[in-house]
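Reproducibility note. Readers wishing to regenerate the assembly model reported in the main text can use the exact inputs given here. Chain order matters: entities are listed in the order in which they were concatenated for prediction.
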Amino acid sequence: MQVDHNKLTIAAAMVAAELHYAELTARQLTISAKNAAAIVLRAGSRAAGLSVISSFYDELAGKTIKLARAINTTAVSLSVITVAEWRTTTALSRLRQAYTKAQDSQFRSRILPLEARITEQLTGIEARFQGLLGALNSDLQEIQKHMRAIDVVAVTSRLEAHRTGEFKEGLLQMANTIQQQTSDIKAHITRSMTLLNDAMY
Amino acid sequence: MLSTVLYNQGHQWIMFGRDPEKPDKIIDTNQYMVVSAGRALLLDPGGIELFAPMLAAVLKFVPIEQVTDVFASHQDPDIISSLGLWDQVLDNARLHCSWIWEGFIRHFGMNKIEYVPIADGGGTLHIGDIDLQFIPAHYLHSSGNFHVYDPKAKILFSGDVGAALEAPCGPMEVDDFDAHVPKMLKFHQRWMPSNSAKKDWVDRVRSLDIDMMVPQHGRLFRGESVKRFIDWFDALEVGTAIRR
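Running the prediction on these inputs yields the following structure tokens for the assembly.
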């Protein structure tokens, strides 16, 4: 699969923005998880089945925040490296043009080692680029997994909430909030993955 | 790109310009190189679009590793936007330019080349077997601006002072000064902002022994036309964009 580096520069910058907002939502998710934990505590034995769930939310929210931050950093690095790649490619292209134009220049051959060196630099940049792209895709998939897990657990927590009597409404509201936040994070991730895929052909 | 040896007595001055393949909409520019005893100085090496033809032309005279110094009269893109590309191919080079532009010029890309700031009063660069002088030309037009004087070759590189806007296929040198004036008039009236800055420059260069004045745009001045230009510029009202 080929990469359109120009598109990817922009895509990486947009992914950085998406993950910034995903992190903000993940922070809200942490608060929601803590609020849910507080209600569960008040509900006591009637919500015994929910205490594990609220810890689970909190843990996943924490992991999501860390991942979102890591992805944000990787995406920014990717954007920076694609600019470095563009500059190096431009230098190589202009160097080759110079070589073509230098037919009658006595020191024309001095361009060749420069070309070799810059080509090597480009290879190094490409390797770093592929590494970052791989890490980005891997982390995005990891967050997606977390969000799928939260979704499944939210369904379970709704069922449990019905057994908590007077705390039912509060807990259902919490489950809805958590599911909405999860959905928002999933949307950021989906958009990010689409942006990256669109830059490949 | 056309290469013309302007001076060749112990050291060389070479002018590069009049590239027939230059993109139409970029302003035509003259680039220069001084070569002395195994070292070369590029003066106002040009914009990104000129990098390839410039490199090819430079290699007619010196191997790339002998280009040890670059001079930028000021910060304009037609002068130095190729810096990021030169930075990739010059391993041990220095860029000489006004101290005020360092933070700005670095935006063109500068990882290997060393920036050597020139103080407002000017300075000297020893290159090979010769000494070149950085002559202050502030506000003509840039706020931090220098010309380069070679006392041995009696050549003054005058940057935008002396520039003429005309088709690049014209003669290399000013042969009829009066006929040349219209080509310079509007440029100097509009681009040069300050009559007092102009007066300062005129006073400085009148004390120099100049055989040839070589600007960054347009034709070169040799002999009598150098004096005629200085007199003409001295008398000219500049800064015409401001209503008085």
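We highlight two features of this model. Helices of chain A lie at 5-43, 48-101, 111-161, 168-198. Chain A has a mean pLDDT of 88.
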